[in-house]
Amino acid sequence: MSSTPERGVLWLVATPIGNLADLTDRAVEALRRADLILAEDTRRTRTLLSRFDIHRPLESFDAHKERRAAERIVERLAGGAAVALVSDAGTPGVSDPGARLVRLALAAGLRVSPIPGASAVACAAAAAGVEGPFRFGGFLTRKGAARRRELAALRAETVPVVLFESPRRLGETLTELAGELGAERGAVVCRELTKLHEEIVAGTLESLASRFSGEVLGEVTFVVFPAELEAGEAVFREADRPSIAPRVLAARLREEGLAPSRISRVLEDLLGLPHKEAYRIAHEGP
Known about the structure:
Radius of gyration: 24 Å
Helix content: 40-55%
Distance between the termini: 54 Å
Oligomer: single chain
Largest sheet: 5 strands, parallel
């Protein structure tokens, strides 16, 4: 970013999704130079600004206020103001306020400049082991025909889908998805990404619905894998059990010289594995 103050620019400043240390140097510089900072929630943004000793004019810019304020902000931009738009977490305008303001600014021929940073979408996709293309679905519509269409689209989806959900509705949503998409559909729930109590859990929709059926705290992003991903489904079914402990135990017993038949019996008796599965793991070899 140039040392000369920029004029007539709308900065889309990505903010941390949890850990405040993830705010980039460019983001800090833009916020310090902005004539106005537009924030989804001024209370949360003040905490961020205070952490970095930033003192600039701050204005609330939530979904309701965007409709009324967007044209006024575009006029300020046209007059040469530098405006920084932030959301509570992540990149503004992606399932957060700001998209209409961006479209108006572009239509007016004004400069729009994204300043990238932490992304719950990219973090969840990476943490879920997504390989290749995926789709971002944001929040599912709460109810009605639109939600039914979205669920139908998920049933037919051929790539992983990253979704947001309120912690209060996570268990209910996972239960509904298990019923609509199939209990064995693979998924990964990411809770409190980048924060102290970060939790990333893989499993089937059915097992995850059970795991998160009670009180859930924090921000949630989750990934639903397509039915066609057979290898992935096998991995998630494996994740439903305590862990990969059967194979770890089998490997240790093998190192101690136990015969496959003995290993198989130990896996059955100690871990409760079905005979065929215990036999297969015991005979897999190192």
